[in-house]
Structures are given as structure tokens and as C-alpha cells.
Design goal:
single chain, 462 residues, alpha+beta, Rossmann fold, Dna Ligase, domain 1, D-amino Acid Aminotransferase, Chain A, domain 1, 3 domains, 5-stranded parallel β-sheet, 16 helices, 20 strands, globular, disordered C terminus
Length: 462
């Protein structure tokens, strides 16, 4: 049944993004907000808004009852969770649908299966998708962990089955470290996600992180090619691009086909991302997990395919079949996204909330800035520090990097320190320009270039 009014159960730039996609479809929007977000851009541009609680996310954006009450009050017939907060909460998806509304995402049972990383590994194996050598299912205890690690060899990655955003992950170089770090990972995951279950994976040295964007309508699944996400700090992505410069056409085809095969095997509905480690040395790729939601980095895929992923997932949730066939999609150019956070990269990325006194955003062909800002906006200190995403597109990767440098040279946000200087420095780095990096490359680079970042801070963002 077509959707007429959509409630956005999120905040920040993704809420703004969803409102704009809904508007193109002629759908009215309802923005929920905490008291701290009463003057946010999303609240300003939505058709209606409802306050759902105090600043603490646990009492607002994670309060299922408050969100559902707001949806009923405003006669919404659908809920979009964005990313983070309740986006991958299977119980929330079930509750939305039990209340007679469409959940903009996969069914609860799919989130449950693919959000449990151990279960997702099992599903990948059953679908014939390569997986990183590791434990079969959850670890039964310390002795079982030791046994698996001895079989696959050190170093090993201890991973929480319900983890995300780099939490619940540790790397052990030997058995003693495994005994010490496993309880830490379990404790962290239990506190963050309510589930301390762990499994082990072999560490692929100098691996790249490559992910495939998929779309499904419950019957048919297509891929929208891949993204390169290897530039990471503390396992958090900071720079993403599409397509991956590391893949040849045969590997790209194999990777994307495997993602479609896995998503099809679970009857996937909506937008999702299947993540892989890619071994530059061997050309092999391995499934690591699936994100059953829209990703922060989705705009780079939109830029190279001309597809509005958010609008498409709204249509699908309203009962429409995929409007795109696999044969309709082709890679057009190269796109790069960098995450502009209110953080000081020269001071260990210290959060820097404050008042946006003024700004100057770049423009021109191939430049896009998805954000939540306006002059006079006070950045609240209670949430993620992401302010927006600067996305550039060029005919080639070299063109995109040149456009990124040009855009960053125009970029300015007065009143805050941001991560913009980091990206100017990275865009000028010879190894980044040559795509000679892996998931462990950025952190040593940051240690070597901290003074350079401090010098640049005043020139790009005051």
C-alpha cells in the first residue's frame, strides 16, 4: 500500500536526507526530536514535528513506545529508522509493523538473522559466499576460543555477534592476549548492545574493507556495485569512495554476484550492505557482515549510479517492486565522500560541539554536501559528532580527488573545529592518491602527521 505520511525516527543529516527523499515522492513527513534537537534543521523542514523526550537517546531516540505514540498521534503510516539508534533493532521493526505501519527496511526476522554476525556467517556459507576462517557460531567459553585460535592461527579478531561501529572488537596476537581481551570485548558489547556473545575470525593482514550496496523487494535483489571503505580510524570509516580502485572487472563481478546471492537467500527487502575484507596479496575476498539499513556512505553509490537509494527503499516498503533492473545500472565516473565531524583531528579527535556562527559551503559541478547546519545552530553535545558529508564526483578517481581538494579549499564552518583539514591532507598524500592503503594504514599516518593537521585547522575551519 503506498505511503502517505512518513515518520523519521532519527536525527541529524540522515533525517534531513530522508525528508528530502520523501518530499520527491509526494509523501508528508513527521520528525521526532528530543528537547535538545527542537531547533534542528530536520524539525524546521519536516511537515510536522513531535517532541519525544529529553536529550539522552535512551529516553528519546531509543524509546520505542514514545516513537510509536508519536506515529499514531500524527497518523503516520510508515517509519524510517535511518542509521544508528533503532535502525537494526528487529524488535522495533516488528513493533512498527504490529502497529499497522510500514517499516522502511527489512523484516524483523531478516534483521535478527543477518544482524547476528555468527548467524550471518552461517547464512553466507550456505549461500556459497566465502567467509573469513573462524569459529562456527558463538564461542562456548575460553577453552573453545583457544581451540579455534590454535586451528586458524594468530593473530585473531575477537568480535561481538551484536557489535557495530567498531565496538566489541579486539585483536589478540597470542593465547594470553586472547584470554585477556575476550572478556573485555564481551563486556563492551553487552553494555552497548545487550548481547555479549563472541566469535573469532582470522586477521587478514593489510586487508581492504570493501562493501556491496544491494536493493531487494523481498523477491528480487540487485546490486549497485561496491564501495571502498579502507581509510578508517579505530575501525570507524572516515573516507569512502566508489567504485573501489583495487578491483578488476572479474573480481568486481564475482564480489557483487556473491552479495546478490546472499541477499536473495534471505529474501531481502529494502537497502542493505554486505561487507567484505579483500586481500590485495591474493585477490581473495571474504564476507564479514551485513548491515540491514541505509549506510552513512550511501551517497557515493547514488552518485555513480544515478539512483536515489532512500527513495527506492521507501517505495519498496510501500509495496512497490524494484523500479530498477540490474541491466539498467552501470558505473559512471568516480565518487568520494568524507565525513565532516565536529572534532579536532590535531587533538586526538576531541569532540568540538559549539555554535555555528557562519559557514561557506563549496559548490559547482560534481559537488554535494549532505548536512544538518544553518547559521546560528548550536551543535548539541549529546550525540554523534557528524555534521555532514562532503561528496564529490569526477570522471575518474584523479578527477574526484582534484575536485575534493578544490571543494575543501572553499569549505569553512566558523565557530567549530572540524575534520576538514584531515581530508585536505589525505587528498594531498601520494599513497592515498595511488590508493596504496589498507584498513590499518590511517592510524600510523595520523601519528606522523598530527603537527600538519594542527597547522591546517585554522585555514579550513575556524
Amino acid at each position: 500500500m503506498p505511503i502517505h505520511k512518513l515518520l523519521i525516527a532519527n536525527r541529524g543529516e540522515i533525517a534531513v536526507r530522508i525528508i528530502r527523499a520523501a518530499r520527491t515522492l509526494g509523501i508528508k513527513t513527521v520528525q521526532v526530536h528530543s528537547t535538545a534537537d527542537a531547533d534542528s534543521l530536520a524539525v524546521e523542514i519536516a511537515d510536522e514535528a513531535v517532541e519525544i523526550g529529553p536529550p539522552a537517546a535512551s529516553k528519546s531516540y531509543l524509546d520505542v513506545d514514545a516513537i510509536l505514540d508519536a506515529a499514531r498521534k500524527k497518523d503516520a503510516d510508515a517509519v524510517h529508522p535511518g542509521y544508528g539508534f533503532l535502525a537494526e533493532n528487529a524488535d522495533f521493526a516488528d513493533a512498527v509493523e504490529a502497529a499497522g505501519m510500514a517499516f522502511i527496511g527489512p523484516r524483523g526476522e531478516t534483521i535478527r538473522r543477518m544482524g547476528d554476525k555468527a548467524a550471518a556467517r552461517k547464512a553466507a556459507k550456505e549461500a556459497g559466499v566465502p567467509t573469513v576462517p573462524g569459529s562456527e557460531g558463538l564461542l562456548a567459553g575460553a577453552a573453545a576460543a583457544r581451540q579455534v585460535a590454535d586451528e586458524i592461527g594468530y593473530p585473531v579478531m575477537i568480535k561481538a555477534t551484536a557489535g557495530g561501529g567498531g565496538r566489541g572488537i579486539r585483536i589478540a596476537q597470542n593465547g594470553d592476549e586472547l584470554d585477556q581481551l575476550a572478556p573485555q570485548a564481551a563486556s563492551e558489547a553487552s553494555a552497548a548492545f545487550g548481547d555479549g556473545g563472541l566469535y573469532l575470525e582470522k586477521v587478514i593482514e593489510r586487508a581492504r574493507h570493501i562493501e556491496v550496496q544491494i536493493l531487494g523487494d523481498g523477491k528480487n535483489v540487485i546490486h549497485c556495485f561496491e564501495r571502498e571503505c579502507s581509510l578508517q580510524r579505530r575501525r570507524q570509516k572516515v573516507w569512502e569512495e566508489a567504485p573501489s580502485p583495487a578491483l578488476n572487472e572479474d573480481t568486481r563481478e564475482a564480489l557483487c554476484t556473491s552479495a546478490v546471492r546472499l541477499a536473495s537467500s534471505v529474501g531481502y527487502r529494502g537497502a542493505g550492505t554486505i561487507e567484505y575484507l579483500y586481500d590485495d596479496a591474493t585477490g581473495e575476498f571474504y564476507f564479514i557482515e551485513m548491515n540491514t539499513r541505509i549506510q552513512v556512505e550511501h551517497p557515493v553509490t547514488e552518485e555513480i549510479t544515478g539512483t536515489d537509494l532512500v527513495a527506492e527503499m521507501i517505495r519498496i516498503a510501500g509495496g512497490a517492486p524494484l523500479s530498477i533492473r540490474q541491466g539498467d545500472l552501470a558505473i559512471d565516473g568516480h565518487a568520494i565522500e568524507v565525513r565532516i565531524n565536529a572534532e579536532d583531528p590535531s587533538n586526538n579527535f576531541m569532540p568540538f560541539p559549539g555554535l555555528v556562527s557562519d559557514f561557506r559551503f563549496p559548490g559547482g559541478p560534481g559537488v554535494r554536501f549532505d548536512h544538518m547546519l544553518y547559521p546560528g545552530y548550536q551543535i548539541p553535545p549529546f550525540y554523534d559528532s557528524l555534521l555532514g558529508k562532503l561528496i564529490v564526483k569526477g570522471n575518474s578517481r584523479e578527477d574526484a580527488i582534484a575536485r575534493l581538494k578544490s571543494a575543501l579549499s572553499e569549505f569553512r564552518i566558523d565557530g567549530l573545529k572540524t575534520t576538514a583539514p584531515l581530508f585536505m591532507a589525505l587528498a594531498s598524500d601520494e599513497q592515498v592518491q595511488a590508493s596504496a592503503f589498507h584498513t590499518g594504514w590511517l592510524e600510523p599516518w595520523l601519528e606522523e602527521n598530527s603537527a600538519r593537521l594542527a597547522q591546517n585547522q585554522g585555514g579550513i575551519a575556524a
